Amino acid sequence: MINRRVNNVEEALQGIENGMTIMLGGFGLCGIPENSIAELVSKRVTDLTCISNNAGVDDFGLGLLLQNRQIKKMISSYVGENAEFERQMLSGELEVELTPQGTLAEKCRAAQAGIPAFFTPAGYGTEVAEGKEVRDFNGKMHVMEHAFKADFAIVKAWKGDEAGNLIFKGTARNFNAVMAGAGKITIAEVEELVPAGTLDPNQIHIPGIMVNRIFKGEKFEKRIEQRTVRQK
């Protein structure tokens, strides 16, 4: 039986080098690959292009890579919770490509499915459409968007098996599900890793064919980006 398990995060991230393009799953701080991000910080790889819905916060998530000036370019849709991101963008230190959130998700999914490009009405008539092909479909103008090309896709799941099958929990399904299989190599870090063949096939969200390496993460903090509670 296929075994995609690797021993640890260091082994999982082998091959990541300076200047590469990396997808990272998560939404806010929910479902981010914490162990992998920490390892990228330790590896000190630089000039990275990171594709992620957002850029973490100042002291956690991708914010740690930004602090170390390891990211050259961010491709994302929401960046409002990171002061260091804002500072680097406004100063010109960081190249930023803001993308409508649905378009960002579809550019990942298209790469996952092997579709080179697609048309969407999102962004037509704005800076998002500058320099891109536009076409009329049923009387409505659409912008052609190309699928992402990433060297690595790094996702985080609740549970996986040694064959690479993944199950997400709750909101952590977000961008993780569309990024799995969307890079040349997909790495999955999971909270629980079980033997191949023990997961209920009907509960699997991403099949192992989409995953190249899987490992069990440790000491997940699972921070909450904005904690909102009811008044007593």
Automatic annotation (TrEMBL):
Gene3D superfamilies: Glutaconate Coenzyme A-transferase. It comes from the Bacteria. The keyword Glycoprotein does not apply. The keyword Cytoplasm does not apply. SMART domains: CoA_trans. Keywords: Transferase. GO terms for molecular function: transferase activity. Transmembrane segments: none annotated. Belongs to the 3-oxoacid CoA-transferase subunit A family. PANTHER family: ACETATE COA-TRANSFERASE SUBUNIT ALPHA, KETOACID-COENZYME A TRANSFERASE. This is CoA transferase subunit A.
